């Protein structure tokens, strides 16, 4: 009964449009009143749990990664990345469609956000594809689909939040996202090639090694950013939090001192927006910490695990059920809220089925990335529709062919754990 009220009330609040943090807090408060009455609300415990939820060193990475992504989103950085990707894969079948995906893979090593990818380098990608007479539906579909790679390849804000909630190594989790992210990009490139052949899309002439080298030198400093982030974590030189700070400082140095495309006023505006975005994320995390505490207090995760074990299901079926549940969650909930709410509830069930917590983190993020491309709460859909100035229904129709590579990647990552766990095993 308590589980039905606890989950059902939260879903209702989300559906009617209550912001995530308020929905989480209200749900916990209402269920507490139902259980204990108005006179027994533990206000002190509520405050302590919310503060405890954000009192975590890894969470300090979030503002730094957000700031680094905003700075890297300045015109010079994205132009250089796009130009290098253009010279690298522009001559493949599908031309600028392949460039779009390659640029998103590279940019994902800097931004850590699907929406930042779609709004940042996505503007350049869509503009270039329009100038080359690519169909609008194809352009926005590739841009939206490739943006979902951002939160999988490190740096990744959702993976940091999952690491904190699940109490697993943030470094291992971030490194675990590299191969799944590359797998997503590779499968999308196959779909682009098939679409290009079917629709007779233009393919550009190979510009030669000299042009590729010049574009590489021009983009060298931005390209070093993901190498510094990943390499530093891999070798143990710095933690993910320290890596985020290094990335932010590096972004400031190259954009202000080397390229001179960012002045002090613009940096101040970016810091202000970063503080706002960080506050939104941390308020959700604080409210979700309270929600998770009540979950454990009411022994809901233990009840779920006992129930699943009683069904005597094999791991294959349990993983399939978890994927289906998370796909539905992604339709209605914002990514960070979904992670903070459902990780304490679902992780024990996954671990009981023999799933490594790091592996489950990647599975969860992949499911929620697909949710970013599905209405009614698909934030990437809204971002791309705004950038392309197209109606949302046109963007949804265009994205349909790209659900296939995402689902294939999800199934492969789910049932072939080594795709996620191979690189972290080398790190250990």
Number of domains: 1
H and E string? HHHHHHHHHHHHHHHHHHHHHHHH
- Helicity, in percent? over 70%
* Number of contiguous helices: 24
Rounded to an integer, what's the Rg over CA atoms?
Answer: 22 Å
Distance between the termini: 43 Å
Explain what the structure shows.
This protein is mainly α and 428 residues long. It has one domain (42-427). The chain is built from 24 helices and no strands. The chain has helices at 2-15, 20-36, 43-54, 61-72, 75-89, 96-111, 114-119, 121-131, 136-147, 157-166, 170-176, 178-199, 209-218, 220-235, 240-258, 264-297, 300-311, 315-332, 335-352, 357-371, 379-388, 392-399, 403-415, 418-427. α11 crosses α24, α12 (178-199) runs antiparallel to α23 (403-415) and α20 packs antiparallel against α23 (403-415).
In terms of topology, how is this protein built?
Layout lengths: L1 H14 L4 H17 L6 H12 L6 H12 L2 H15 L6 H16 L2 H6 L1 H11 L4 H12 L9 H10 L3 H7 L1 H22 L9 H10 L1 H16 L4 H19 L5 H34 L2 H12 L3 H18 L2 H18 L4 H15 L7 H10 L3 H8 L3 H13 L2 H10 L1
Helix pairs in contact: 1-2, 2-16, 3-16, 4-15, 4-16, 5-6, 5-13, 6-8, 6-9, 6-12, 6-14, 8-9, 9-21, 9-22, 10-19, 10-20, 11-24, 12-23, 14-15, 16-19, 17-19, 18-19, 18-20, 19-20, 20-23
